[in-house]
Design a protein that fits this description.
The chain is α/β, with parallel strands linked by helices. The chain contains ten helices and eight strands. The longest helix is centred in the C-terminal third of the chain and has 30 residues, at 228-257.
């Protein structure tokens, strides 16, 4: 198949994917009509990366023992469609995802902070996920925008959710993902100091090299309406834009010191 011109140019412009590093992708729901596309995406990126569990990949990253390009798969909100349409596909491919859970969504059965409420997994379904070797992460108890919360509210959201999940599922919860991907330097620092988690996942795209800060995990959102090649193009452009942004920030700091 001929490589589309945008992807061809993105591959030339972007940083190599061949060196040892980690890439984390995330989804929300996987509707039935996109189950086939979901499998295609996993197969497509399996050409570039070796799939690893979220916790294991972060451990390798922090220990500077990453020896190959790796990819971890995550889901936010524990959408019911993931249980119905995606988990069997990942089982077949031996991919162990991390599901970031909002306990109050699970208790009520739906994502009440969304414009369109989506059904979510119940505790029985989540126990089945755990029994199959999948990981559970902390996504706060009620999914607020933490940048609009007080320090006390932030800590309560994380602590209450972690305790609820551990009580219900009997697993240790060490990884956290920001609701809506919204964070500030202050929230990062607060959560880091709290000891409530070992990692903080954002929605900022990009690669992560060895010894990357686990309290600023990068994740690429995957749009199931796009083809695998279109998704690769966006990811590669994000890598290049990330380095351009870092260069700009360095230049601004340098000018301020003069």
């Amino acid at each position: 198949m001929r490589t589309p011109l945008p992807l061809y140019l993105a591959r030339i412009a972007s940083k190599s994917w061949l060196f040892p590093h980690l890439r984390v992708i995330y989804f929300h729901g996987v509707p039935q009509e996109f189950a086939g596309r979901f499998g295609e995406i996993l197969d497509y990126f399996g050409q570039f990366f070796e799939y690893e569990s979220y916790s294991r990949s972060l451990d390798l990253l922090s220990q500077a023992t990453v020896q190959r390009p790796m990819m971890a798969v995550t889901f936010d909100d524990a959408d019911r469609s993931v249980f119905d349409n995606a988990l069997s596909i990942m089982e077949t491919k031996r991919i162990k995802p991390c599901i970031f859970v909002v306990s109050d969504y699970v208790n009520k059965g739906y994502t009440y902070r969304e414009k369109i409420h989506r059904p979510v997994m119940d505790w029985h379904m989540l126990r089945e996920c755990v029994a199959k070797g999948m990981e559970i992460g902390n996504h706060t108890f009620s999914h607020p925008n933490l940048t609009k919360c007080s320090e006390g509210e932030i800590l309560k959201e994380l602590a209450t959710n972690r305790q609820c999940i551990e009580d219900k599922l009997g697993v240790r919860v060490v990884n956290f993902a920001y609701p809506y991907g919204q964070f500030t330097k202050s929230t990062i620092d607060l959560v880091r100091r709290s000891g409530l988690c070992q990692s903080q996942a954002t929605t900022q795209r990009g690669q992560m090299g060895i010894k990357h800060d686990l309290h600023f995990v990068r994740r690429d959102r995957i749009d199931l309406e796009k083809t695998p090649q279109q998704i690769e193009t966006l990811m590669r452009l994000a890598d290049r834009l990330y380095w351009i942004r870092r260069l700009y920030q360095f230049a601004v700091r340098h000018m301020r010191k003069k």
